[in-house]
Write a structure and sequence with these properties.
Keywords: Membrane, Transmembrane, Transmembrane helix. This protein is mainly alpha-helical and 157 residues long. It has three helices and no strands.
Length: 157
C-alpha cells in the first residue's frame, strides 16, 4: 500500500488472464440465439448453393444456344442468360462466405457452452465480427453497384 496520496497509482505488470470462466448469463444469452443463427445460416447456405446451381445451368444453356442478336442491344454478342448466369455465380459465391461465418459462429457458441471459457467467448465473437465486417463491405459494394447502374442507365437515356 502506498503512503503518499499524491503519487500516481501503480498497475500490475501482468495482463489479466485470458482463460477464466465466463458469466453464466452471457453464455445463456448466446446459447439462446444459437438456433436462430444456425437456421439463418442454413437457409443462406441453401439459397446461395441454389444460386450457384441456377447460374451454372444458365451458363451451360447460354453456351449451347449461341449468341443472341436483338435490335438496338449493346450486348449483341453476349446472350442475356450468360450475363444472368455470371451474376448468379458471383452473388452466390459472395453470399456463401457470410453464411459459413454464421455457421462457424453457431459452432463456436456450442463450444463456449461446453467450456464456458473466455477463450471460447473471444473465438465466438471473432466469428461474429468477421461476419459483420464482410456483410458491411458487401452491402457497400451493392450500393455502389446500384448507383453505378443508375448513372449508366441515366447516361444512356
Amino acid at each position: 500500500m502506498q503512503t503518499n496520496p499524491y503519487s500516481a497509482p501503480i498497475a500490475e505488470d501482468t495482463p489479466p488472464s485470458m482463460g477464466g470462466p465466463v458469466n453464466y448469463g452471457v453464455v445463456e444469452q448466446l446459447v439462446l440465439t444459437r438456433p436462430w443463427v444456425r437456421l439463418i445460416s442454413l437457409i443462406a447456405i441453401l439459397f446461395h448453393a441454389l444460386m450457384l446451381f441456377v447460374g451454372s445451368v444458365w451458363l451451360i444453356i447460354s453456351s449451347n444456344s449461341g449468341p443472341s442478336y436483338t435490335a438496338g442491344s449493346s450486348y449483341q454478342s453476349v446472350p442475356k442468360l450468360s450475363i444472368m448466369g455470371i451474376s448468379y455465380l458471383i452473388f452466390g459465391i459472395l453470399g456463401l462466405y457470410p453464411a459459413l461465418k454464421l455457421w462457424k459462429y453457431a459452432s463456436r457458441i456450442s463450444r463456449l457452452y461446453d467450456s464456458s471459457t473466455e477463450v471460447e467467448l473471444i473465438a465466438a465473437l471473432t466469428e461474429q465480427k468477421k461476419f459483420w465486417r464482410f456483410t458491411g463491405i458487401l452491402i457497400l459494394m451493392y450500393i455502389a453497384a446500384i448507383a453505378m447502374m443508375v448513372i449508366i442507365n441515366m447516361a444512356r437515356n
